[in-house]
Design a protein that fits this description.
Length: 161
């Protein structure tokens, strides 16, 4: 399950907090405000559309879809594949905090474990823990890497008296 908090500025200037929830990958996203389900949206043929619920403003559907698209975990599988194209066969996103990685056949799995464990954290941009379940080509060996996530940057100003 993936949950995101989206701050939507309505045409009247009011800011609404809309929770975006996806229970399973490939399912539509549910838009919830407070304890009320507003509707569901999905990306169909490259465009975000409402698929269920009350008639939502187009601006809300568009802004929620754009917000979902900008989340880093969507691009992480492609970044991992691009980083190790000769070593990795497939990266599957199971949720925003769990990924499955399958290596190619000729890979030295122990060596790959050392390399992957050391460098994959540099690709992370999310602030929550991420788990990678990594398998060799025939699933006879595996390891689990649990990361702490990237720390938030502190833009605070230190004042001296």
């Amino acid at each position: 399950m993936i949950e995101l908090d989206h701050f939507f500025q309505a045409p009247d200037g009011a800011v609404r907090v809309i929770q975006l929830i996806q229970f399973e990958l490939q399912e539509p996203w549910r838009l919830v405000e407070g304890d009320r389900l507003l509707g569901s949206i999905a990306k169909l043929r490259g465009e975000w559309r409402q698929v269920l619920g009350e008639n939502l403003p187009n601006q809300l559907v568009s802004s929620a879809g754009t917000f979902i698209d900008r989340q880093h975990y969507h691009s992480l599988p492609a970044e991992i594949m691009a980083r190790w194209p000769k070593l990795i066969e497939q990266v599957v996103m199971r949720s925003d905090s769990e990924f499955m990685v399958v290596c190619k056949a000729p890979v030295s799995f122990k060596t790959f474990e050392q390399i992957f464990s050391k460098y994959v954290v540099s690709l992370l941009q999310d602030e929550w823990p991420v788990t990678f379940r990594v398998y060799n080509h025939n699933f006879s060996q595996d390891f689990v890497l649990k990361t702490k996530g990237k720390k938030k940057k502190d833009y605070g100003i230190a004042l001296r008296w």
